[in-house]
């Protein structure tokens, strides 16, 4: 199996089980080893008392992109720590895009940076996720770690 096919298979299986991402209307736009891009449109029920996107929804989009990126190797991987810096608000109707990129992966630990942008290209948030590989696989595969 090629690394790209492995990443796509993992992403398909994860999305089938990810009720949170699907429920918020997230779409997996791209996946490859160590990277993933998800998008989501800001709905009225995602707005806070200031009429802008609640930061928790932006964080959730970034966290989902991080999760898909760090799970592209057919090894179950979870978040160990993450942080976000908000730079600009998300507006009603904006389509947000979160692009996760692997910065480092050594042993069971990984570091991923996620940039969240709006449709006009402006950067709304920067997210850094630290991952930890745990026991298990997304699907059985000869030669893969269990």
UniProtKB/TrEMBL annotation:
Gene3D superfamilies from the UniProt entry: Hotdog Thioesterase (3.10.129.10)
Source organism superkingdom: Bacteria
Stretch forming the signal peptide: none
UniProt keywords, alphabetically: Hydrolase
Entry keyword Cell inner membrane: no
One MF term in the entry's GO annotations: acyl-CoA hydrolase activity
Residue stretches making up the Thioesterase domain: 50-123
Family membership noted in the UniProt record: Belongs to the thioesterase PaaI family.
UniProt name for this protein: Hydroxyphenylacetyl-CoA thioesterase PaaI
Organism: Sulfitobacter sabulilitoris
